[in-house]
Amino acid sequence: MADGTADRSPARRPGGRNARVRAQILAATVELVARDGIAGFRYEEVAEFAGVHKTSVYRNWPDREELVVEALLRYAEDLASVADTGDIHRDLADFVLALAGGLETPFGRTLEQAFQPARQSATVEALTKILDQRVAALRRRVDTAVDRGELPPVDSAFLGEMISGPVHLIVNRGMRTFTREDAERIVGVVLAGIRATAPHA
């Protein structure tokens, strides 16, 4: 029966070659942005770094900024997470240490630009979205700690600002290497202050 199926192109299978090539290109883009920052990112380097033909890059992302934006948002899936081990102090210290490590890379410095965007663009919007996702993940972890009785009721956004502020200060000023001890001290002081100032029933 002639139903036209012979003329159709075969459907792309999920996880097929094109999906693998796209994943390689996005991973390469993230690594290049992390290495060089957005300003230093060179579109033409992606194919070689990803081990694919350059036409694969241009066909999937004819626009340089679209490629950067998609890569940043994919990277955010790993970036915007806070562990839940049941120990709020440990989880926040891990978060702070990871934040410091990220800020010390060219990619992290690029993220910092989203706090003070000089102009609106798709890239700046993507960076802002990544930061928003990090804030949301931290809020969820703090709210869970409050529900479990690990912490008294607290404004999770304020707590996030209190623990991340010193990290930005130390890292951005290049004062010294941020250490695990720094993370533990910052979290310890902030949590002690929150518990000490909580209204008593």
TrEMBL record:
Residue ranges the UniProt entry marks as DNA-binding: 42-61
Coiled-coil segments on the chain, per record: none
Residue intervals of the HTH tetR-type domain: 19-79
Pfam families xref list: TetR_C_11, TetR_N
TM ranges: none
Keywords, in A-Z order: DNA-binding, Transcription, Transcription regulation
UniProt-listed InterPro entries: Homeodomain-like_sf, HTH-type_TetR-like_transc_reg, HTH_TetR, Tet_transcr_reg_TetR-rel_C_sf, TetR_C
Descriptive protein name: TetR/AcrR family transcriptional regulator
Species of provenance: Streptomyces koelreuteriae
